[in-house]
Each structure stands twice: as structure tokens, then as C-alpha cells.
User: Which sequence fits this backbone?
């Protein structure tokens, strides 16, 4: 009788853990991604979620469009989804050693792009000077920071597959 090949338990848990961290990073799109601090004496802060910054946002009362769709803010979420797909392929044993390598690259690129959310915001205004003035008041929010950290940890977890023998 032929001996059955058994997979290493750690070799299966690492891609699953990386994929779960990436799912949590995607869920961070509903937390504040950018904040605008007004220059008033009381320091009012207005925060916008990752979904508002990515897909656009219009103020409900005034019908003024604040943000337009930004593909570069959408790209980290696409990279996380691609990383999850390659992590699943890694668990299934498809594509050999290339699947964890590609998933780690996707997660790392998404993590870096999450730190650049404020620079990639798209304003619907025609005036370049006004848009540049609006970008100066933005700072990173907790959602973008946590998503970036989770993505980078996910990349490290996926890269650890290279050191696990199957």
C-alpha cells in the first residue's frame, strides 16, 4: 500500500490565519479612515469612513459632494481580496510555492497603500487650488491605520509559509 501524504498542520493554519486577518482588514473600511481638523478654536474633527473616501460621499443635508470615487483607495481592498484568493489556493495546495509568495505581495502592497489614503483622496471640485487646500487638513484615521497593520501582519504570516516544511 502507498503511504498517504499528510500536510503539516502549521502549513495549513498560516494561510487561513493570513486570510482571516485580511478579512478583518477589509472590515476596517467602516471605521474612520481620514479625519479633517478644523482650524477653529474648539478643534472640531470630522471623520470619514474608508467606504466614504473610496466610493464617494455627499453631505446629506446640503447635497454637496465631498469626495468622489477613488480607484487608488479601492485598490487596497482589491489586493486584499486577491491575497485571500491566493491564500485559499495555498491551503488547497494549488500553484505550489507561488501562491503564498503572491498572497504575501498582495497583502504587503495593500498595507502600504492603506497608509497613503489621505494622498489618494479625490475631490469632485474643478479648482485645483481648492482641492489642494482641502487635502492639507486631512490626517489618517484609526480605520486606515489598523487595516494597514493587519495587512502587513497578514503579509508576514503568509511569508512564513516559506519557512514551513510540508
Assistant:
Amino acid at each position: 500500500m502507498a503511504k498517504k501524504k499528510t500536510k503539516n498542520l502549521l502549513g495549513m493554519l498560516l494561510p487561513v490565519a493570513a486570510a482571516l486577518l485580511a478579512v478583518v482588514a477589509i472590515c476596517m473600511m467602516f471605521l474612520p479612515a481620514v479625519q479633517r481638523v478644523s482650524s477653529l478654536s474648539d478643534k472640531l474633527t470630522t471623520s470619514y469612513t474608508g467606504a466614504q473616501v473610496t466610493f464617494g460621499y455627499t453631505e446629506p443635508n446640503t447635497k454637496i459632494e465631498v469626495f468622489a470615487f477613488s480607484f487608488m483607495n479601492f485598490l487596497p481592498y482589491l489586493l486584499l481580496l486577491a491575497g485571500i484568493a491566493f491564500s485559499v489556493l495555498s491551503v488547497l495546495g494549488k500553484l505550489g510555492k507561488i501562491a503564498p509568495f503572491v498572497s504575501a505581495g498582495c497583502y504587503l502592497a495593500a498595507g502600504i497603500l492603506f497608509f497613503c489614503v489621505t494622498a489618494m483622496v479625490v475631490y469632485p471640485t474643478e479648482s485645483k487650488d481648492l482641492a489642494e487646500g482641502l487635502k492639507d487638513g486631512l490626517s489618517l484615521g484609526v480605520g486606515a491605520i489598523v487595516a494597514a497593520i493587519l495587512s502587513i501582519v497578514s503579509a508576514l504570516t503568509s511569508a512564513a509559509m516559506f519557512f514551513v516544511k510540508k
